[in-house]
């Protein structure tokens, strides 16, 4: 004779604490403690186990849902606006300057460099005339520039160009390779951009 369980006299938590349910693959097995059956219930053992499994499954689903809701949202990639015509002009001028430095065209660079320009290197700073002097003499040969990215911004009559690059240079006869973030500051003078400052900041690569 099938024995039945009275759920009105026993909570589901009490039932689960007194009986065991296990799962292997797609098969479900269970063991019911006879002490939990009082013979007066109206729900059969199979129905009770089915209800218990439903409760356990619902708990797992709720737990999974709660964990998913706690996951941080994926970061958004910021939209990068294209350069304005004035910024594009400044970026073009910066690229032309790198080419002039690589070709050691000091006279052309002299037209671009502001008379009070300063140049900051890893070993110190130089004036306009000192920078032009080492370029002419070959004391520093800016051999090649591998530009990774560059951006420009303009504030009133001042333009700033940030360039991430790898520089291969010959310094004192020795070839060296360094990754830099280069900051160029330009000022607008008589309708033309003049380079007022150039600073090399070495990065970790």
Structure write-up:
- With 205 residues, this protein is an alpha+beta fold.
- It has two domains: 4-70, no CATH class; 85-202, Nuclear Transport Factor 2, Chain: A, CATH 3.10.450.50.
- Helices cover 33% and strands 41% of the residues.
- The protein is built from five helices and ten strands, in the order βαβββαααββαββββ.
- The protein has helices at residues 12-18, 45-70, 85-102, 106-112, 128-137, and strands spanning 4-5, 20-24, 27-31, 43-44, 113-121, 124-127, 140-155, 158-171, 174-189, 192-202.
- The strands form three sheets. Strands 6-5-10-9-8-7 form a six-stranded mixed beta sheet.
- β5 (113-121) and β6 form a beta hairpin.
- α4 (106-112) packs antiparallel against α5.
- The longest helix is centred in the first third of the chain and has 26 residues, at 45-70.
- It is globular.
- The termini are far apart.
Secondary-structure map with pairings?
Blueprint: E1 4-5, H1 12-18, E2 20-24, E3 27-31, E4 43-44, H2 45-70, H3 85-102, H4 106-112, E5 113-121, E6 124-127, H5 128-137, E7 140-155, E8 158-171, E9 174-189, E10 192-202
Parallel strand pairs: 5-10
Antiparallel strand pairs: 1-4, 2-3, 5-6, 7-8, 8-9, 9-10
Helix pairs in contact: 4-5
């Amino acid at each position: 004779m099938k024995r039945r369980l009275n759920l009105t006299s026993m909570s589901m938590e009490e039932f689960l604490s007194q009986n065991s349910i296990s799962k292997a693959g797609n098969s479900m097995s269970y063991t019911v403690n006879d002490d939990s059956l009082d013979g007066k219930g109206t729900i059969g053992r199979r129905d009770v186990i089915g209800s218990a499994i439903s409760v356990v499954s619902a708990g797992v689903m709720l737990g999974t849902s709660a964990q998913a809701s706690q996951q941080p949202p994926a970061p958004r990639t910021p939209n990068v606006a294209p350069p304005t015509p004035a910024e594009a002009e400044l970026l073009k001028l910066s690229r032309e300057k790198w080419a002039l430095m690589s070709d050691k065209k000091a006279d052309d660079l002299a037209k671009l460099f502001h008379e009070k320009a300063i140049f900051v290197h890893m070993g110190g700073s130089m004036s306009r005339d000192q920078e032009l002097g080492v370029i002419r003499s070959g004391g520093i040969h800016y051999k090649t520039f591998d530009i990774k990215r560059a951006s420009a911004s303009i504030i009133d009559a001042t333009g700033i160009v940030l360039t991430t690059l790898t520089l291969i240079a010959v310094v004192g006869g020795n070839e060296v390779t360094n990754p830099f973030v280069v900051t160029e500051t330009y000022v607008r003078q008589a309708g033309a951009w003049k380079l007022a400052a150039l600073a090399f900041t070495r990065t970790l690569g």
